[in-house]
Input
Amino acid sequence: MTTSVIVHYQEITLKGRNRIWFINMLVRNIRTVLADLDVEHVCALAGRIEVRLASETHWDEVRERLQRIPGIGHFAKAVMVPATVEAMADAAIAGMRGRTPVPFRVKVHRADKRFVLDSPAIERQVGQRVIDALDWPVDLKHPERVVRIDVLMTDAFVFVDRAAGTGGLPVGSGGKAVCLLSGGIDSPVAAWRLIRRGVRVQLVHFHSYPILNDTSQQKARELAAILTRYQLKTRLYLVPFGAFQRQVVVSVPPELRVIIYRRMMVRLAERIALRVKADALITGEVVGQVASQTLENLRAIDDAATLPILRPLVGTDKDVIAQDAMRIGTYPTSIIPDQDCCALFTPRHPATRAALDTVRRAEAVLDLELLMAEALSGIVIEETRFPGTVTGNDKMRRLLTRGGTTP
Output
């Protein structure tokens, strides 16, 4: 018998003629995430993906990694046996032996309908053999344990325990976007929600070092590393923002500073997005969560961009966002106290309903292109891979600082 992991996808099955493209992308991502483990091969079979293990030594790590990869509905460690009732029943009995007897049922799926027995017949015969060998009770409607069998033409996969995957679509199938990453709870969750929809997300973090300490940059690096465990490859842009904030303090009315900060962040993130051919920006903003996140203010922020700004959390309660952060592992890092650049030079009473014309007039006194060039000249770019390491990217930094204009 051969030990394999059988991976089932869900939403991909609805993709019609494009299905094979999505499947191949998921296969590629699985190969990447398991590249340093003891895996013989990963290949697509009829309606499923087989990950064949050379041994079960790294099964716990395989399971943990597969649970994170977008596109997987569920998966299970299975044994491959000849497609005979005797072999399937023996594998089922071996998988259940030693466990506490509970009501069970057998559930069969035939990938090849030419198999001599139909699914109900296989279920009855395998189930009866399990009863004869182990004397477990049967419950077809509400079983506490399900023995699942995937029957191909000459082989079958038998598995007892099944683990849930992340769902969604394979990373890389949904295009590319750039996320404005703060050190807080919201923006990493916003990035993850788009990653789960197949979007490859690049991250931009604005900091005010050396005016403030570098804690926020370290948090951004940790958050990028965590998100990389889901999308396998991440580029993080660390953009100095303190010089711009100093200029705003001496030029812009206090109540408009937060809006002007956010508009410049959007412009800088869009410059990066255009260079890397991304199609959208992502933020973690939520309507009403803080006083400055009103519809009027969001409209004023959107005015600074030509790319669409996606806000996947815009109507989500804070406790739901926190639950997602705990689920994906970013919460412990996000709650570490830091000196956020957005808190620097922030007035006590920021505008909550900023008029767009007023914001534009206040911004007109700033030399935006010069200030953008200064910020981009100090950018630090790091690439993280999983499994892998963190590296710098001087070539991309040169591209970003080499002329060009932002619409």
Summary: The radius of gyration is 26 Å. The CA atoms of residues 112 and 152 lie 5 Å apart. The chain has two domains: 2-164, 176-400. Confidence is low (pLDDT under 50) at residues 403-407.
